[in-house]
Amino acid sequence: MSLLKGTKVTWLGHATVLVETAKGTRILIDPFLEHNPKFPKSFELPKIDFVLLTHGHIDHTADAAPVAKKHGATVVAIYELALYMAAQGVEKTLGMNIGGTVRIADVAVTMTQAFHSSSLQVGDTFVYLGEPAGYVLTIDDGPVLYHAGDTAVFGDMALIRELYAPEVVMLPIGGGYTMAPKEAAVAVRLLTPKKILPLHWGTMPQLAGRPEQLAALIDAPERVVIVEPGEAM
Ligand code: NI
Ligand code: MN
Please, are residues 111 and 78 in contact by the beta-carbon 8 Å criterion? Predict the structure, then answer.
């Protein structure tokens, strides 16, 4: 697809997305594989170079350390979560924070705000893992992608459009823990993307929002990408 300029974007169920740039950099966002009921178990993960984490919740980090260790990948996350991953034995971590940009190979990674929470239950206590976040990926000679993480809609999505103009936005739509189609439609109006990949829906019964509902609420509904887990855009 010319919009993606050779970059491949594959939804793996829930908020897990594999981004493979035209130059061959492989980025896995929010790996939730083994215990993700929507992850296609037959999917063969290619060698991963970077793991990006939006926040600490288990449905976004469950397979981060195992994948990073197996592939020798660098985990990118907000400072506290990066330290936690290092404590789990991940050798290469790259901490950052909201509003900052780091370069990984042919991609400039900008961390954006998200309205959510971020912790992990360890034993009978909860560990604080920094603030929740999203990511803008500005790919050299490629598209600009935005993975919103788990979030409510927020007015400063207009700033994300002004600063980075993402062509492809990945938005949670399941509701309950994040925005639902009603709010995601406003996010689409603020971000004006060319394509929308809905995330965080259908994994479990309470994540009831559906891509078709979002499509019915926006102009140019064909912008909503409807794929099965394991399929590329
Ligand atoms: Ni979450
Ligand atoms: Mn989640």
Answer: yes
Measured CA to CA, the distance from residue 167 to residue 146 in angstroms comes to 8
Ligand nearest to the CA of 119: 1
In angstroms, what is the span from residue 196 Cα to ligand 2's centroid?
A: 18
121, with CB counted inside 10 A (0-12, 13-18, 19+), is exposed
pTM exceeds 0.85, yes or no:
yes
Chain Cα centroid distance, residue 14 = 9
- Rounded Cα–Cα distance for residues 54 and 56 (Å): 7
Q: Which ligand is nearest to the CA of 132?
A: 1
Retrieve residue 64's tokens. Answer: 């981060």
Report residue 105's pLDDT band, with 50, 70 and 90 as the boundaries: very high
Q: In what order do the strands lie in the sheet with 8-11?
A: 8-11, 17-20, 26-29, 50-52, 74-78, 92-96
Tokens describing residue 97? 């924070």
Segment 116-175, tens digit of pLDDT: 999 999 999 999 999 999 999 999 999 999 999 999 999 999 999 999 999 999 999 999
Using the mean position of ligand 2's atoms as its centre, give its distance from the Cα of residue 141 in Å. Answer: 31
Structurally, at CATH architecture level, domain 2-223 sits in 4-Layer Sandwich (3.60)
The strand ranges marked E within the chain are 8-11, 17-20, 26-29, 50-52, 74-78, 92-96, 101-104, 107-113, 119-122, 125-128, 133-139, 144-147, 168-172, 195-199
